[in-house]
């Protein structure tokens, strides 16, 4: 980080704040995964921690490299878009696959069906 010495103090404080926020949110997601008991409870905490934590870290990166480079650093926006799209989609796919498997095996710890859920659709 050879250019970091030229970073103004107020920018460094903002970047540090976003980095701490991102690290804290990611840590809370990991802690939630350890503390919650069932798969259906555990799957949400790391997803939220990853999405919001990575978002805060990427905001810090955008600010840091935009100020150092004297131009807007936008390559982090592409990373943010991938994280914001892939993380929730992965959550939904994992949860639906686990739900399908647990209902097929008649597991007793499956969340109840919602009103309007089509049980015939799960048989395919």
Question: What are its keywords?
Answer:
mainly alpha; 0% strand; 124 residues
Explain the layout of strands and helices.
Elements: H1 9-35, H2 39-42, H3 44-69, H4 75-104, H5 119-122
State the total count of DSSP E strands. 0
Are there runs of 5+ residues with pLDDT below 50, and where? none
Estimate the mean pLDDT confidence. 84
Quick one: overall form?
A: elongated
Largest sheet: none
> Which percent range fits the helix content?
over 70%
Sketch the topology as an H/E string, one letter per element: HHHHH
Class from helix and strand fractions: mainly alpha
Q: Distance between the terminal alpha carbons, to the nearest Å?
A: 55 Å
Strand content bin: under 5%
Radius of gyration: 20 Å
Count up the helices.
5
Quick overview:
This protein has 124 residues and is mostly helical.
Description:
- The longest helix is centred in the last third of the chain and has 30 residues, at 75-104.
- The mean pLDDT is 84.
- The chain starts with 8 loop residues before the first helix and ends with a helix.
- The chain is mainly α and 124 residues long.
- Helices cover 73% and strands 0% of the residues.
